[in-house]
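Here is the promised in-class demo. Please do not try to memorize the tokens; focus on the logic of going from shape to residues.
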């Protein structure tokens, strides 16, 4: 993956309740301890519609892919079933059925590291 998929805003989409970003590595390095810092890191690496349409396969397979659903952040493995449920059944899955959000790992001082 030689392209920088997060540079430039691209597209004119408005913020939705669901967004994607290639920020997991940056979050791990920076260890945000507030929701505001998590949002800032997420937004620095946010993927636009144009970027997704140009590089969909690379973005979806990136280990840095993070899904934002409202104020919660999920790695792709945890967030994908939630997104699929929205698309297929028009109903949300309980976060308890797929695992904790990244918010839990970064904002909980008792948690040592990501699984």
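The designed amino acids, position by position:
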């Amino acid at each position: 993956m030689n392209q920088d998929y997060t540079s430039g805003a691209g597209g004119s989409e408005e913020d939705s309740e669901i967004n994607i970003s290639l920020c997991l590595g940056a979050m791990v390095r920076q260890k945000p301890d507030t929701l505001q810092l998590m949002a800032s890191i997420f937004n620095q690496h946010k993927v636009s519609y144009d970027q997704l349409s140009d590089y969909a396969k690379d973005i979806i397979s990136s280990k840095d892919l993070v899904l934002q659903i409202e104020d919660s952040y999920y790695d792709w493995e945890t967030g994908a079933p939630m997104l699929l449920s929205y698309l297929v059944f028009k109903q949300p899955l309980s976060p308890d059925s797929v695992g904790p959000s990244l918010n839990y790992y970064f904002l909980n001082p008792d948690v040592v590291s990501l699984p």
